[in-house]
# Entry
Amino acid sequence: MRADHLEAALAGPLDSGIGASLLLAQWSHEEARRGNDRPRAVEYALEAQRQGALDDENELLFAMNSLYALVLAGEFGRATSALSSAIEAAATHGDLVNLSVSYLVRGIARSESGDLRTAEEDLRMGDTLQWPGLEAERAAYLADVLLEQGLTAEATATIEVPLTVGAPGFALHFLQARGRVRLEVGRVDEALSDFLEVGAIATSLGIANPAYAAWQSQAALSLHRLGRRDEAQEHAAAEVELARTWGAPRPLGISLRVLGLIEGGASGERLLREAVDVLADSGAKLEHARALIDLGGSMRRANSRSDARDVLRRGVDLALQCGAAALASRGNEELAATGARPRSVVLSGVEELTASERRVAHMAAEGKSNKQIAQTLFVTPKTVEQHLGRTYRKLNINSRRNLAAALAGGDAAIAI
# Structure
């Protein structure tokens, strides 16, 4: 529905029922795209749910707009809870379309909150439905999650495969994720090109909210790497203003952190401290960890080594809780530069398995075939194969014949 039609519909009295709830769901998403009124977006999303937007399985795809709006607003807990209910209902009815979409959106919510292991699990579970646009979204967020876990080669393989992206809106997150991977591996010019293309698409679609597409901060980091500091600062400062207008902590914390890194010095450190404060109680654990580590690095370079150690330890511990191996490694490098010992958490045995890996492993240990497991869990046999492959590596076994004994063995989680 066009934005002007939505505005006209909402201008008058709104009936109750499924039609009104879907209208509210669509408008919450429109508010999130524009990025002007976060409280209203949340209000419409919650009212859509109260009026039954999620109750009609035939309309759930449209109702998902309200849940995605909640994610963009930083309401991760509310979104995840509603999506878990949608997944349970879709599985009960054998509804592969809604099951796949619900897994995808819950994976996005968990990714943005920093729960990388469960996010990866959801994104891989959602591969049942191969729609061009959804396939591109799934690849984008999966590549992001893999990159954060330090699996750069796998992230690159995920995002560099040819995909039919579909409508321009579906290209936004795909290009943004590809740009992040390319920036990580040093292909800075290509990364910048991806981020600027995201900006062009977002502008053409009327998307101004950095929670939807944080292309300016990513372009700023690329420009800074290329020595184009003035342009980098301009993009980063512009995104800070947009993020302040929207008011969600995660995009504001990201944009403040990037501007702080580019400015450097005392003013940069002040911005990094503000980013840490904004993110502290936001639920965006990974971005909070990143801000802490960047602040600690800034303090170290300013010769405040003792104070930097405490900030860096907090950042590394939080990164490890998120499963963000790449960020934890960088934080440990900063810690070592202060003269402190690195920090780590070593998981082994069954403790290292995700919930889906455990579920698949137990079913395989009971003698079920990959096809039977896939049918029971409403996933593809390829997904089952991937879960088992990762389970074998984590349990240090080479076949399903050893699964029962390995699953019965002891778990270990050692903090160092």
